[in-house]
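Hypothesis: this fold can be encoded by more than one sequence.
Test: take the structure tokens below, design a sequence, compare later.
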């Protein structure tokens, strides 16, 4: 299994999971041209695209989806019913363009077994995913309002993980953002702070976790060095300094 992030920030999110030459795309928050060039730079061909999984309907996760669907109509789009409806409405697509799944029900796409789980965020029915292939389990959760145990139990099962580490709460409060936006980011259906991400990992990471990728860092209200330091402290606290830690860049591949 190979993981490649094509973009990871509030400006755009797109993450690839590759196994046996097939690729699942989680979210499509890049323009078609940016998606195509970064996906190609990662060494993937469009023929290899097995499907697209949507986490939720915010524009930084669906921006390029309508064009992708027009260019590659044979590639299935997977989302739960409420995300399908909301995304179809935002992008002027047809709800029938989506294969609707139910949270908690696993399904297969090529060599992948996909298990969506609920997360708290300020949209209709957002999800994270467990993706299994080659006997490995990948955990994916961004745009997470709170570090709930119901999310942690999935992380506990993972060999590799992408987890949001969005902001430093003090930097959010000291930023020039309007009070309503600050409340939204920090609220229970907003985004996961560095400390919340570290807390989730410290409580739930199991001995099988080998690689952790921190995602969706805020450009204004976080810094890669701060997110990395807090997570390294959490990993040290559970005697897991050996976990490979990557900080995903906002607009280049890793
Ligand atoms: Zn987002
Ligand atoms: Zn969002």
């Amino acid at each position: 299994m190979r993981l490649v992030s094509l973009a990871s920030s509030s400006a755009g999110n797109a993450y690839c999971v590759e196994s046996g030459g097939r690729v699942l795309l989680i979210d499509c928050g890049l323009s078609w041209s940016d998606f195509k060039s970064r996906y190609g730079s990662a060494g993937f061909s469009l023929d290899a695209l097995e499907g697209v999984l949507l986490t939720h309907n915010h524009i930084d996760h669906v921006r390029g989806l309508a064009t992708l669907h027009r260019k590659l109509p044979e590639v299935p789009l997977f989302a739960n019913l409420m995300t399908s409806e909301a995304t179809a409405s935002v992008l002027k697509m047809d709800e029938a363009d989506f294969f609707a799944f139910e949270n908690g029900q696993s399904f297969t796409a090529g060599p992948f077994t996909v298990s969506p789980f609920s997360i708290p965020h300020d949209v209709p029915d957002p999800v994270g995913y467990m993706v299994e292939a080659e006997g490995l389990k990948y955990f994916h959760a961004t745009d997470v309002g709170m570090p709930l145990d119901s999310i942690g139990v999935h992380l506990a099962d993972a060999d590799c993980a992408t987890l949001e580490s969005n902001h430093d709460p003090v930097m959010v409060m000291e930023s020039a953002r309007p009070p309503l936006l600050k409340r939204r980011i920090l609220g229970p259906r907003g985004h996961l702070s560095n400390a919340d991400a570290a807390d989730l990992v410290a409580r739930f990471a199991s001995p099988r976790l080998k690689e952790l990728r921190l995602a969706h860092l805020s450009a204004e209200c976080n810094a890669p060095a701060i997110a990395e330091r807090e997570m390294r402290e959490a990993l040290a606290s559970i005697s897991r300094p050996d976990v490979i830690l990557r900080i995903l860049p906002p607009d280049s591949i890793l």
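The pocket of zinc ion (ligand 1) is lined by residues 10, 13, 58, 60-61, 143, 216 (CB under 6 Å). The domain at 2-247 is CATH 3.60.15.10 (Metallo-beta-lactamase; Chain A).
Hypothesis status: open.
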